Amino acid sequence: MKWTVLMIALMMLACTSSFAQLTTYDQGSQYNGDPNFSSVSYSVSTTGGAPAPTAPQSVGSLGLQIPSDVLSTSQGPSAQEQTQTLISASQDAAYAFAPGGSDATAVNSVYKMVIAPPGGYAPNNLYISYAPRTVASCNLYANLPLWMDSSGRGNIWFYEWYPSGMLNTQYAGYVYNPGWYKRWFFADTPGWHILQYYCGGWSNYAYIYVYGQSAYWVNPNPVYDPSPYPYPYWDSDITYTYPPTGHTYYSYESSSATY
Length: 259
What we know:
Elements: H1 2-33, H2 59-62, E1 70-71, H3 79-82, E2 87-88, H4 91-96, H5 102-106, E3 125-128, E4 135-139, E5 143-150, E6 154-161, E7 167-175, E8 179-186, E9 191-198, E10 206-211, E11 239-242, E12 247-250
Parallel strand pairs: 1-4, 4-10
Antiparallel strand pairs: 2-8, 3-5, 5-8, 6-7, 6-9, 9-10, 11-12
């Protein structure tokens, strides 16, 4: 009788553990599609001498919704721009990317809200796709221009928080004069990405939601990596196998899932 009771208890414990794991996975899946999911711990750990940032406010706490207009750009970074971490630009160029006519009036003012670090002071400005936009959405593998209006000179450090809360910090270079600069965002992971930079002071936060199917394998490293990057350079389905996990990646247009 005691053995029977013990076996039942062990089975119940196993079921509880499996349910907890499933619940955790479901929450992670919901985060990719739910703009109000806020149970993410944002890292503030940096390397290379980069100033430590303040963890950004979660999408849920700000009440942000995924922008209904999915941004795209017909012109990605040129071969020269792909090799540069920072590109000299101008205010006119930053505003010229904005849509014209009826498309301009349709853009929600919430997408242009300035979300500053604690204390409410941000001497530098950061915009997505065009000035003065700060909240946007795009498709997986999209390239979007980022416009940086720096108020001073000094080292520029760029910060990107991934949907998991991981922080990627990159040194973008030294600028000798205040002014406008440009760099490119590469959408390599589905979910919300939060961006910021530092140059003698902090910029506002910028929020980008990346649409994408979680069943597809995406490079987990927070750097630009063109392999696998089959779309839109091939017309037929191409598959890749990612050795560390054994997952098979199918080209973007394939209807097959990752196994």
